[in-house]
C-alpha cells in the first residue's frame, strides 16, 4: 500500500508516498499551506482512507468545513484534535472533535491523538492521513527541546502504524536552527514559495530519489 498524492501535487514532484512517511510542509504566510495540507489528506478518501487533523491555529469547525470544501462532500472518516477552542471558550460538542486546553498542552494532545487513532482502527479505516496545522503556534508556547521530544513520539507513532503524516510550519517565524532541528524528525520536506508575481511554486526533497526543482502549483 502507498498513499497516493497524484492530482494534488504535480506528477513531476511526487505521485505517492510510502506508508509511515512523515512530511514537513514548509512555506511562508499566504502560500496556501493549509489548503495543500487538506488536499493531501482529502485525497485519501478516494482510497477509503481516513483523516485526522490536529489544529493549533483555527477552530476545528472552521478546519472541518474547509476540509469538506476541498473534498467536495461529506467525509467518510474525519477526526479533529482542537487545541484552540477551549482557550477561546468556543468549544462545542460533537463526536469527531476532541479538545485540548491549549497549544502548550502537549501531553493532552498526545492522549487525544491516541484516542482518535483508536477510533480509526475501530472504524476499519484502511489507512490514516494525519495533518498537523501548524507547528508554529506550538513553538510560541513551548521550548524547542520539549517540542522535539513530543514530535519524536508523535512521528514515531505515525511511522510504526504505517500512516502518513503532514506537518505544516512557517519557516519565516523561526530561526534557521529551529527549522533545521525540527526537520531532522521528518522523512522529507515539501516546500512552498510565492514568486514575485504572486504565483505558487513547490519542490520536494527527502522522499524522492533526488531533490526536485521548483514547479508551479495550480
TrEMBL record:
Name this polypeptide is given: RAD55 family ATPase
Pfam family, one: DUF7504
Domain of life: Archaea
Amino acid at each position: 500500500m502507498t498513499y497516493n498524492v497524484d492530482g494534488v501535487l504535480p506528477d513531476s514532484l511526487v505521485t505517492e508516498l510510502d506508508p509511515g512517511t512523515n512530511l514537513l510542509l514548509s512555506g511562508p504566510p499566504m502560500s496556501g499551506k493549509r489548503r495543500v495540507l487538506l488536499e493531501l489528506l482529502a485525497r485519501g478518501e478516494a482510497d477509503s482512507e481516513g483523516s485526522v487533523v490536529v489544529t493549533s491555529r483555527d477552530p476545528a469547525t472552521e478546519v472541518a468545513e474547509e476540509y469538506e470544501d476541498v473534498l467536495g462532500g461529506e467525509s467518510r472518516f474525519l477526526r479533529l484534535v482542537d487545541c484552540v477552542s477551549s482557550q477561546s471558550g468556543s468549544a462545542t460538542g460533537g463526536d469527531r472533535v476532541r479538545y485540548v486546553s491549549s497549544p502548550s498542552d502537549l501531553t493532552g494532545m498526545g492522549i487525544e491523538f491516541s484516542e482518535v487513532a483508536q477510533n480509526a482502527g475501530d472504524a476499519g479505516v484502511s489507512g490514516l492521513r494525519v495533518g498537523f496545522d501548524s507547528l508554529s503556534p506550538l513553538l510560541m508556547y513551548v521550548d524547542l527541546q520539549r517540542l522535539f521530544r513530543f514530535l519524536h513520539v508523535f512521528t514515531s507513532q505515525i511511522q510504526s502504524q504505517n500512516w502518513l503524516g503532514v506537518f505544516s510550519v512557517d519557516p519565516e517565524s523561526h530561526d534557521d536552527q529551529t527549522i533545521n532541528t525540527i526537520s531532522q524528525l521528518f522523512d522529507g520536506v515539501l516546500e512552498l514559495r510565492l514568486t514575485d508575481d504572486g504565483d505558487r511554486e513547490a519542490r520536494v526533497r527527502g522522499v524522492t530519489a533526488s531533490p526536485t526543482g521548483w514547479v508551479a502549483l495550480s
